[in-house]
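Risk register update: the risk of archive-format incompatibility is retired. Evidence:
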Amino acid sequence: MKTPILEAEAHCDGPCGVYDPASARIAAEAVQSMTKKMLDLASSHGHDSHGEAAYINTMSRYAAIKDEEAQKCKDELLVLWTDFFKPQHLEANPDLHETFWHAAKLCSACKVEVSADHAQELMDACEAIHNMFWSVKGRDVPWIRAS
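Archived output:
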């Protein structure tokens, strides 16, 4: 029996051809989770010296994770934007550049701020990018959150 030949294409300098917006979604979910934890902690911490030290320690850890994950999300989105998507994808997705630009700006905003609204907007932007990506690939892949 003859094995069918599969055609493969690569969209980057290294011909891995492996792209998936899931890594950006996971990072954005971590940003949203840390933002929620920071807001919850800020509203519930005690004011004694032990409570203050624990609060500062925990809050700084949450902030560090939030910032790292926001940068990961931005990096993953920029790879999709600059390496995967091509000019021919603009016809089916005329708002592609605006969507990615806005998502990258939201990653920055999430690093600078502790905003539940911006964290949700980042998740919404990642979902829009997820839908664009899988549409271009001709696949119906549902948006599923890990959290």
